[in-house]
Design a protein that fits this description.
The protein is 39% helix and 17% strand. The protein is built from 13 helices and 14 strands. The protein binds 2-phosphoglycolic acid (PGA) and zinc ion.
Length: 421
């Protein structure tokens, strides 16, 4: 049985130039697996703890040397010689070693780096692509569904200086037949949008997730640009739109500040309903602030039968919060981020609970990313059917789409693709 012979973590940079952790796992037969951990900007307060040194004289306090020391010391000691056949056992050993509810002792970044690198090493031993190995490890029988990409072509909120309150305006090519055609549609619309913004006198530099960051006056103006670029590119009726409002970021003292307009929770709900009347807006993530459960529930009562309402900061890939939301019908979809919870097996538990309840699961990148394409494999291996991993620019974003193009090619005639809407 193949066992872990060595684990080594190092500090590398993420796409925003901040330190993050990369882990190499070596097995006793010489097989090796590597993975790198992403980092958010609009993080939910209920996420597992990302351990940073806090020494302001180095990397503005963002060093991760303590997390690295936890991998190279106690985690290595606990896992050395252990078989890798069962991911849950590996993850549980780290959870036991940490002993806190939010991974505050070792750091979710330390634990996740090891968890993902072990998955990669296992895939190497099995001589399987990672998506296939994940599917086999977690009993998914048909990992043949390519996910619908939600492509974030206009960036706002904490990810850009556009001034737009909503963090992400995404295009969703629901009317095309294959994943590669979805990427083609995204790219063509992205370039039409660039021309339209330029012609209107806006800047076309990009934000953290590779989307444009024009200083538009409000969401309607951003949506009008999206609709026009979809039209010019020839995809009228074949593309819908989605947003991640990331509303915790514009909520303060009981009020939401939406593009300069103060709104109560119920006024914000009315605003979303009016936007859905006017635009083909099909998916709304984090419509309300992370603890405004009533705000989410009210919107779900009004739009839940026809629209996808996604919980991100609200649910933080945490099965307890997801179960609470299922019981209370708070939303009808869950955003899945590995580093919000901190191990691969807990992430899979969150996906399965979501799927078993008849909700949709959307695998997601973070705004601070690396060249690691783990989430592309996760989306196919767990048959989630949806992914959001940014725009059609910046290698930290397109590397995930490119990996999915390779998987589509590997699957050949077995590849499935369909609109979840
Ligand atoms: P984050 O943004 O990685 O900055 O949290 C992504 C999201 O909110 O979905
Ligand atoms: Zn979000």
């Amino acid at each position: 049985m193949t066992t872990i012979s060595h684990i080594h973590a190092r500090q590398i940079l993420d796409s925003r130039g901040n330190p993050t952790i990369e882990v190499d796992v070596t097995l006793d037969d010489g097989t090796f697996g590597r993975s790198a951990v992403p980092s958010g900007a609009s993080t939910g307060t209920h996420e597992a703890l990302e351990l940073r040194d806090g020494d302001k004289t180095r990397y503005h306090g963002k060093d991760v040397t303590k997390a690295i020391a936890n991998v190279n010391g106690p985690i290595l000691d606990a896992l050395k010689g252990k078989p890798i056949s069962d991911q849950r056992t590996i993850d549980q050993l780290m959870l036991d070693l940490d002993g806190t509810p939010n991974k505050a002792s070792l750091g979710a970044n330390a634990i996740l780096g090891v968890s993902m690198a072990v998955c990669r090493a296992r895939a190497g031993v099995e001589h399987k692509p990672l998506w296939q190995s994940l599917a086999d490890q977690f009993d998914v029988s048909t990992p043949t569904l390519l996910p619908m990409p939600m492509m974030n072509v206009i960036n706002g909120g904490q990810h850009a200086d556009s001034g737009l309150s909503f963090q992400e305006c995404m295009i969703i090519p629901t009317g095309v037949a294959t994943f590669s055609e979805a990427i083609r549609a995204g790219s063509e619309v992205f370039h039409c949008l660039k021309t339209l913004l330029k012609d209107a006198g806006y800047t076309v530099s990009v934000g953290d997730e590779g989307g444009f960051a024009p200083q538009v006056k409000n969401a309607e103006e951003a949506f009008d640009f999206l609709m026009k670029s979809i039209d010019v590119a020839g995809y009228t009726g074949k593309m819908q739109i989605g947003i991640d409002a990331a509303a915790s970021e514009f909520y303060k003292d009981g009020s939401y500040d939406v593009d300069g307009k103060p709104m109560s929770s119920s006024e914000l709900t009315d605003y979303y309903v009016s936007l859905c009347d006017k635009y083909p807006l099909i998916s709304i993530e984090d419509s309300h602030s992370e603890d405004d459960w009533d705000g989410f529930s009210d919107l779900t009562a009004r739009l839940g039968g026809t629209h996808q309402l996604v919980g991100d900061d609200l649910l933080v890939t945490n099965v307890e919060r997801i179960q609470k939301a299922i019981d209370a019908k708070t939303v009808n979809s869950v955003l899945i981020k590995l580093n919000q919870i901190g191990t691969v097996s807990e992430t899979v538990d969150a996906i399965k609970l979501t799927q078993d309840s008849g909700w949709t699961a959307v695998v997601s990148h973070r705004s601070g990313e690396t060249e690691d394409t783990f989430i592309a494999h996760l989306a196919v291996g767990l048959r989630t059917g949806q992914i959001k991993t940014g725009s059609l620019s910046r290698t930290d974003r397109v590397c995930k789409y490119n990996q999915l193009l390779r998987i589509e090619e590997q699957l050949g005639s077995k590849a499935e693709f369909s609109s979840p809407f």
